Amino acid sequence: xxxxxxxxxxxxxxxxxxxxxxxxxxxxxxxxxxxxxxxxxxxxxxxxxxxxxxxxxxxxxxxxxxxxxxxxxxxxxxxxxxxxxxxxxxxxxxxxxxxxxxxxxxxxxxxxxxxxxxx
Length: 119
Hints:
Elements: H1 3-25, E1 37-42, H2 52-66, E2 71-73, E3 76-83, E4 86-93, H3 95-105
Parallel strand pairs: 1-4
Antiparallel strand pairs: 2-3, 3-4
């Protein structure tokens, strides 16, 4: 780990602790009522992986460190662990999955629901 990476890691951890302390001391400040707060590491951008294969391997490596098994669904490789309503996860979305989503979204402007009679 480079000095810059170590610094960023320390700053992130310190920021999370500061946030927790602040929220604990200010009960009038709302927090998310539903769902999970996520800390997501996208292995194709936030690790040293230089290919999709390496990024998938990184999800698997992180899963082992977390003591869990990655899930793979529709090109999404995810390994995570929950700490109450906070989740830490490593994520890789394959290029094929992103391409499928882009193809689906390419039709978005072709549909105008407000133009359908009775809508």
